[in-house]
Design brief:
Layout lengths: L6 H9 L3 E7 L6 H11 L8 H12 L4 H13 L4 H17 L2 E8 L11 H21 L5 E9 L5 H10 L5 E7 L11 H10 L3 E5 L5 H9 L5 E4 L7 E5 L15 E5 L1 H8 L3 E4 L1 H6 L20 H6 L4 E3 L4 H4 L3 H12 L3 H14 L4 H16 L1
Parallel strand pairs: 1-2, 2-3, 3-4, 4-5, 5-6, 6-9, 9-10
Antiparallel strand pairs: 7-8
Helix pairs in contact: 1-14, 2-3, 3-4, 5-6, 7-8, 15-16
Cofactor: Zn(2+)
Family: Belongs to the metallo-dependent hydrolases superfamily. Adenosine and AMP deaminases family.
GO molecular function, one term: hydrolase activity
Amino acid sequence: MTTSTGSADLRDQLRALPKVSLHDHLDGSLRPSTLVELAAKVGHELPVTDPEELAQRFAANAASGSLEKYLEAFAHTTAVMQTAENLRRVAREYVEDLAADGVIYAEVRWAPEQHQEQGLSLDEAVEAVQAGLNEGAEAVAAADGIIVVGQLISAMRQSDRADEIVELALRHRDKGVVGFDIAGPEAGFPPSKFAAAFTRLAEQMLPATVHAGEGDGLESVRDALVSGRAQRLGHGVRVAEDIRITTGEDSRSKTADEGEELIEVELGPVARWVRDRQIHLEVSPTSNVQTGAIAGFAAEGEEPALADHPFDMLYQLGFNVGVNTDNRLVSGVTLTGELALLAETFGYGLAELADFQANALEASFLGYEEREALAGVILEAWNA
């Protein structure tokens, strides 16, 4: 398979192909126009009130290298997501926007505990989001489209409500909730702190993905696997810190051709476990650059760029990687755009980009029969 030439042509081609999104935060993916409208309605002050300028401000903050500026947007988005009506609208538009970008399966993560400032119960918040997701899916189906969306209920590490949020997820597991997640600051809040909650999930056989290897290093990944029993890793890119690569004549083997440099790769125990057991990495390329998750892979003294991302190394070494947006509004990205950037940066063709969709679908928390049905749709389109 080949890609069309030219960045715009590639994006048009990719937008029309069915895609899978596993790591996308609801409160980071509002329409700018909706945020402006709802902020005026609830009396929340925004830095600017023109939707285009607001989106540009958030994107500039995200690209500034300051995590504080990156996170500024969430104070505004969560402020307008405190009623059932607003949650329902945001969720409906979320589905419609994903479908417009060619996504046919998505898992949306969000933390209901952050949406109780105006009296909503946890269950009411989850029900409102599910109603919006259902309305969005129905609108897409009415336009002859296909999209399936499941909720991932996140507990915020710093608020110490994981046990309560696990029970919330379990109450709604047959009503749209497909899994559990923990989010928030990794450093100081390891999954081991919530071991009882993860044990409860395992006993009830509700799957979990864990943010790890983004804001903290290798021990964060290890603990997500051990204490969090994670089936997937949210970002997980710093697992690459457990990979040692040597090059040069000193490492030349007797079988190497003359003039050919031998590259030796040594995987540490955590990286080997993740690779050998095909633990899926929910990678968000642009966000990983913006939040500093890949700063350690850039040359000393240099600002990290997408070319420094270990994504391609992980893929070439056989890790199970997928591509995600993390926060579409905050980072100013789409899934189509992220795939195109990877293709342009690492020289991928459609065959590689199709691999990432297959990886994500196989790692999704859908049932086997549903995965098989969607796999047929994806494979047929990407192979056409």
